[in-house]
Amino acid sequence: MLLSSQSDFLVIGQARDWPEAVSQLRKTATDILLLDGSALRWPQIVPAATTGSQSRACRTIVLAGDIGQEDVVRLLGRGVRGILSKHSPIELIFKCIRRVHHGEVWVGRKMMASIVDAMCSSIDHVFHPPPPALRLTRREHEILQLVVQGEANKSIAERLAVSADTVKHHLTNIFDKTGASSRLELAMFAVHHRLVPVA
Predict the structure, then answer these.
(1) Which residues of 139-168 are buried (b: 16+ CB within 10 A; e: fewer)?
(2) What whole-number distance in Å separates Cα of residue 165 and Cα of residue 142?
(3) Cα–Cα distance measured from residue 32 to residue 61, given in angstroms and rounded to the nearest whole number
(4) How far apart are CA 182 and CA 96, in angstroms?
(5) Taking 50 as the threshold, does the pLDDT of residue 52 lie above it?
(6) Among 40, 81, 96, 193, whose Cα sits 20 to 30 Å from the Cα of 72?
(7) CB 156, CB 143: distance < 8 Å
(8) At a CB cut-off of 8 Å and minimum separation 6, what does 13 contact?
(9) Per residue in 112-166, pLDDT tens?
(10) The pLDDT of residue 111 is above 80
(11) In sequence order, what DSSP letters do the residues of 85-137 get, joined into one string?
(12) 85-89, long-range: CB within 8 Å, 24+ apart, which pairs?
């Protein structure tokens, strides 16, 4: 009912389990597959884009309750494009759906640290220098570090004693310089190029 209240959303089906979801995906042109956290127990889950009969890609979002680091990494590895707490405000869920529909990968800020930890433990130890044209200021480096730690803009502003608008301005510059389109992509870029400490 809440999803249907949005003028740009159209709910075209519901399923009780993965086989039923796959069956519906093969019959419909679905943009977003929204899964309950119980999907974590479905060993056969595969990226939705490989199951649909239509040429358009179907992107999967999982609304989870308690979810561990291994589950987050496993779901992303299986092609899930969004992971969000089922207790998130509905407006945040709407935002996640829209961002994923436009091609971004979305995870809740509280999950960011778990993903970065997993990346750091599996990353090779070969140094990958950042692009020569990338010139982050000292303040941009500070903000990047806090983003990777999963801090929200308001929290970053409070810690650095600046306004939220100032943080937003710096983040716009950081996204422009790195080419990242989401906080997760930014964190992956930062870890890959050792722009933040890697254990």
Answers:
(1) ebebbbebbbebbebeebbeeeebeeebbe
(2) 16
(3) 7
(4) 11
(5) no
(6) 193
(7) yes
(8) 24, 28, 30
(9) 766 776 666 655 555 566 676 688 999 999 999 898 887 889 999 999 999 999 9
(10) no
(11) ETTS-HHHHHHHHHHHHTT--EE-HHHHHHHHHHHHHHS-SS--PPPTT----
(12) 85/110, 86/36, 86/37, 88/63
Q: What's the gap between Cα 177 and its chain centre?
A: 20
The pLDDT of 19-30, averaged and rounded, is 84
Three-state secondary structure string covering 11-41: CCCCCCCHHHHHHHHCCCCCCEEEEEHHHHH
32 torsion bin: left (phi>0), alpha (psi -120 to 50), beta (else): beta
Q: Which domains does the chain have, with CATH numbers?
A: 3-107 (3.40.50.2300), 121-192 (1.10.10.10)
Residue 162 confidence (pLDDT) = 94
Nearest Cα residue to 50 out of 22, 12, 11: 22
The DSSP bridge partners found for residue 84 are 63
Q: Which amino acid, one-letter code, is at 103?
A: G
Q: Is the pLDDT of residue 63 over 80?
A: yes
The length of the chain, given as a count of residues = 199
